Fold each of these.
Amino acid sequence: MPTPSHTPVRTDALVLIAEDETEIAEILAAYLQRSGLRTVHASNGRDALEKHLSLKPDLVLLDIQMPLMDGWQVLSEIRHRGTTPVIMLTALDQDIDKLMGLRIGADDYVVKPFNAAEVVARVLAVLRRVKVDSGAAARLLRVGACQLDLDHHEATVQQNGRSHALELTLTEFRILTTLMRAPKRVLSREELLANCLPEGDTLERTVDSHISKLRKKLETLGISGTPESVRGVGYRFGAGA
């Protein structure tokens, strides 16, 4: 039971456990679930990245020594995508490994063998810290002249000191949100289709249609070249704003 001075953690927070040793993953899942958190397991690096993309967990417990892709590669890609909190789990107890993890962007580092209750305590602490650090700002995205208020589902463009409303459909708002979360990252049509379009809409050319309409709406407010097409790959937010 948190004290009044503690920021409570959402009871529905989802933790992705990326760990190739099933027994360890099951122990961690049991302890986390006992604390009211939801869990999902990935047994290798590629599976971890796929589940991170599709499920958008609130935190990742990431083992370093995993098959297909190691924890360093997974952490690097997660950081390329955004700011999901990551706690590294590893048998490597060298300062250089800890420094590498922190340099790439890990939020914490736990060395095996560990006490599962301590891991849970660290998970809760990181989730509380992230909530305090982000606060309302996490619900307000700004890139260049574009601003999205995620709580009120409002999009605006700042021009000449004035704020202009950007009237978007739900799908256009989702696409713009996804692109603005990582403005330099190129997203494939498949990724945008999976994350932004209604279930059952499976045609990649549908993405092009929504992008085109979104681009025209931004152009009417003086923003050109956004979203930017990257030939043969997909789209990114672009430098137009």
Amino acid sequence: MKQLFLLFFFLFSISGISQTNVLVIQKLNSKFTKEIKENKRIKVWTKDGQKIYGRFTIKDSTSIIIEEKVILLEDIIKMKKKSLFGTIANPIFIVYGSFMIIAGVVTVGSGGWGAIIGGSFIIGGMPLVLIPSISNKYSIQDWEYSIKIR
């Protein structure tokens, strides 16, 4: 029993030590930092106008690799974290929110109770359209990129 306990302790300690490298994004006007682990999906806009999307790996302390392309951190002008759920769900939310806004505008025109119901559709549809469009964007004007190698 004691040997089994030591085996489990050894296995869990190895998994705790073997952590991955992370891409660190720090807000320029505060100390807020966000860490993105290696092999996560990101979309990167570079200075030469390229948009590159995919899972990234860290090459060294100044560059990352996406889709077999080496990208220097200093060449990135904007970055967006893209989860698989967001990639699938965001277009659905945007379309559903747009239908809610359109239905709200049509219903508001009928007057009376329709104006109240239509207003609630418009108010409910706006976050469904706006939040997926603006979330998880990190522009070079507001954020600083670095790599933490562990």
Amino acid sequence: MVDKVPERIFPMSNIHLSEPIIICGHNIRNRIVVPPMANFALRKGNNLVKPEHLQYYTAYAVGGAGLIIVEACSVVEAPDILSIYDDSCIPGMSSLAEAISTSGAVPLVQLLDEGIFGSGRIAIEQLSKEELLSRKNLFLKAAVRCMKAGFAGIELHAAHGFFLNRILENNWRTDEYGGVFENRVRLLKELIAEIKEACGENFIVSVRFGNPNYNELVNTAMIVEQAGGDLLDVSTGCSEYGEIPKDFEFDSKIYAASLVKKVAHIPVICVGNITTGQQAETILERSYADMTAIGRGHLCDSDWGNKAIAGIMPILCKNCRTCMWYIDNKKCPVNKRK
């Protein structure tokens, strides 16, 4: 008996969503991004790549995503979180980069300083200038390891209240790295330039950032571009965004991305409650962003990319009050029925 062919929900394919884009010489086959999402069920045992990581990242690539940003990896040794703090991490990361790229997607790695954020005890003002610059150097060394592992680039995690985000927003140091905006953005600007110099012009440097102050949000984007950054991944900062225009039909994060898109000359990624290919297509058609990141959609249906481009409805997230996937993907009600 032949299985029923899934019904198309659109009369034509999503032409904007399926359009390739070239970034730093890397041909990304479409505008669909898998954003960095950690599977907390795998945060046990060690901080290295596990077979399960290879399985589900490969599934995203086979499922049609163009760009895959691997979940945040710590630039310092951190238990129970993927890490890239020394060369012993390279073999596992290399297998992950190969699995993604041979399946047709372009792989990046998101980098964060889990040590500073995780402690919750150290304010940016408490770090000496030498220690601040030393921690910046940890990101640089981690980026070089990612390049050696075969990744097309990295993403600096400067959003969601993590270390680089705190430097950008909540930083009242009295030296040249704190206080006024021009000083708060200095470390990020230097880091981008140093990574590009060390890893070469074909190595993608993306920055995930956000800021409830729209003026600083837009200015951060311009600084990233001037420093040599290649990709702007707009999310939230240390706090959520305020009101957005009543006639804007998408998430506040997508509204923030649309503001960045108006001034940027490099590609902009947006994220925020995108569930269908039609929504993603509309965002691109209206030039709110250049690429669309779909998180929960991929968690529920690894074939989201192929289905969205073909105009087929993917398996939809049930929007549980507490996302079971982040606790243990096996407990996700959607994954249970697949």
Amino acid sequence: MSTVPASPDSADAQALVLVAEDEPEIAEILQAYLRRAGLRTAHAPDGQRALDMHLSMKPDLVLLDVQMPKRDGWQVLAEIRHRGQTPVIMLTAMDQDIDKLMGLRSGADDYVVKPFNTAEVVARTQAVLRRAMAQTQVQARVLRVPPFEIDLDQHEALVHLDGITHALSLTLTEFRLLTHLARAPRRVHTRAELLAACLPEGDALERTVDSHISKLRRKLESLGVEGTPLGIRGVGYRLWGAE
């Protein structure tokens, strides 16, 4: 058996991997290697449980055995793809090309044949997670923090409220402030931070931030969005209140 790899300092650390595998020994070994690599794990012993856990836990990646009870891997993969784009790596004892093609054409991100080198499975898992993360970062050019949708490339801010979409007419500074707050909507942003990030061109004073925030708040209130940005006395602002 291969030596368990050392834990790396990687961008995919703390991602949650759902191991859908009906053989307890294989599942245990996979989880041990994944945890040693800095990943969190959960185990589903059959296809139906895998779908239930995918829905409730929203894992970052699924290691999916093909031959499982209740629902096989192809059925699970089809349902996961119906729900979204969670990365999936298929695990199977079938090594014929037609089986591999079936998995990839069904939307699998990678394919590993048993018996496999567990360290290689971990490496492939990390590679798929990195690709998924890079794709997410590209897609993140649109920030979605309900009721706001902020398109950074089009420089457009929308408010979705009661089934109606409103376009916000914002100044450059107001757009920057809303975007900055939306990136971490429950964190308190100091006036000095907002000044440096959103009004970098001149020698504006911190009280200038208050003026721009006030104008932004009035525009939001006119659309029915109340209480945001929220002022924190003596500190600064956050988009929403504490959880």
